[in-house]
Amino acid sequence: MKRKLLAMALIAAFSVATFAGCGGGGGDTSSAAAGGGGGGDLNFGFLNQIDTWPAYSAIQDGTAEKYGLSGLDTQKNMQLFDSGMPMVEAMISGAWQIGDAGSVPVLMAALRYDAEVVGIASNESPANAIVAREDNPALKVTNPKFENAKGDAASVKGKTILVATVSSAHFVVDQWLKSMDLTDKDVTIKNLEQPQAIKAFESGEGDFLALWSPELYQAYGKGWKDVATGKDVNANTLMLYFAPKDWAKDNKDTIARFLAMTSTKVEEYNSKGEELVPDLQKFFQDFGAMKFSEEETKLDIERHELYTVDQQLELISSGDVEKWMIDIGDFFVRQGKFTEDELAQLKEKHFNITDEYLKAAKDVSPSK
Prior knowledge:
Elements: H1 2-13, E1 44-46, H2 53-61, H3 63-66, H4 74-77, E2 78-80, H5 84-91, E3 98-102, H6 103-113, E4 116-123, E5 128-132, H7 153-156, E6 160-163, H8 168-179, E7 188-191, H9 194-202, E8 208-212, H10 215-221, E9 225-229, E10 238-243, H11 245-250, H12 252-272, H13 277-288, H14 294-302, E11 305-306, H15 309-318, H16 320-335, H17 340-348, H18 356-361
Parallel strand pairs: 1-2, 1-3, 6-7, 6-8
Antiparallel strand pairs: 3-10, 4-10, 4-11, 5-8, 5-9
Signal peptide: 1-20
Pfam families: NMT1_2
Organism: Peptococcus niger
């Protein structure tokens, strides 16, 4: 809670403008450089998600020190955000230097503020989902395009969907509606952050609820059922490491050390799997004040693929990341957040995706 209050205070203190008032060009992120560095003055923006665990664990157990990132503290240097858009807004105030957010808000950061995508934390497509109450008629209908999804135009048109807009979950909603030849205009989209959305849905508001993990598992605990996941409707969503461009260029070594450090922890995550359940439960409780059952934690592991440095480089070189970003860019155009010209600008600069820092991370070795 202290981390979240600190993040909110920093946003307010710097009078950060919302995206609705932003122009199309890159914003001034030079102030972020003031907070940068390789030690205790390096701050991070994170969500309460499983791909935050590698950095959290590395700071807690001293791995960060071995990678030359000394003086870090999970309470002071890791800021918690409810979703990616508030994190992006805090970036332009200099509140943090390296962030980890979904591909949807990161794409907005790349366009509006010229943020650089410096790495790939995880694939979270199966962990973004639309749910409904058990008595929703849409659950009895197979989607016309995707066999693992539910709902058709007749059972969805005119209904209300609760979702944090301009989020990965919103992108899943968009792709789901598109599969039924529907758009946002055919339904009512109510913008709520996840905690508020869950409470509203529980009280009877809305027909569908779109969430991402770990809040998604609260929905399952209440008996709500999957209508569609991101994976079901080809809404490929990644958690991406990103940074203000000017700061990143001046602090290449720091980013490389961070990526090498987290990669070591991802190797541990991939090798131990469910052995890490107790550690992950403690992480979710300590970092985000959220209690996870053993079953929920295992499900979260199952629904997330975390990437080492080598795997990130392979994914970028395959072209898949850029292809998926184009899909999200098209979503923004449909939402009226981007113009066609702005999307063309992003395509021209390859969405600010770079493997420069990952390649540098391969040359980083921990101290003994």
